[in-house]
Amino acid sequence: MNASSSDSPLDSPHPLANLPIPTGDRREAFFGLIAPIGVDLDAVTLALTRSLSNIGYNTNEIRLTDIFRKYPHWYDVKYKTEELKYKKYIRAGDDLRKDTGRDDRFIFNCASAGYA
């Protein structure tokens, strides 16, 4: 049997989508997709967003590197080429860890961004 684009699991609701959505106390869920700078996670993000939507959840995408654009006076991430972009973001991440004295600083940024 040949698979076609209409056979994609993303094109049909998840089997659990017809279950009743609990009311009242809804639980929050956090998913972390971690990859080196430059890795395209758009397909994974889209699949996760659609699946969560099918069971009644809204999503909020947080990119940890957004902190560098939020505070441009601290970290220079302006670039003209993709190669320079990666170098600048890697340097900014290294500088953030050095400046704060914490290797886990991005985790705190992610947690606080979810509640900003």
Protein model, in words:
By secondary structure, this protein is an all-alpha fold. It has a domain at 62-116. The chain contains 4 helices and no strands. It has helices at 42-54, 66-70, 82-100, 105-113. The longest helix has 19 residues, at 82-100.
In DSSP terms (H or I, runs of 4 or more residues), the helix count works out at: 4
Distance between the termini: 49 Å
Helix content: 25-40%
Cα shape: globular
Using DSSP, what is the number of strands?
Answer: 0
Structural class: mainly alpha
Query: How do the helices and strands follow one another from N- to C-terminus?
Result: HHHH
Can you summarize the main beta sheet? Answer: none
Mean pLDDT: 74
Tell me the radius of gyration.
Answer: 19 Å
**Proportion of β residues?**
under 5%
Oligomeric composition of the shown chains = single chain
Low-confidence stretches: 1-6
Q: What characteristics describe this protein?
A:
40% helix, 0% strand, mainly alpha, 4 helices, globular, single chain, 116 residues
Short description:
The chain is mainly α and 116 residues long. It has a domain of 55 residues.
Topology of this protein?
Elements: H1 42-54, H2 66-70, H3 82-100, H4 105-113
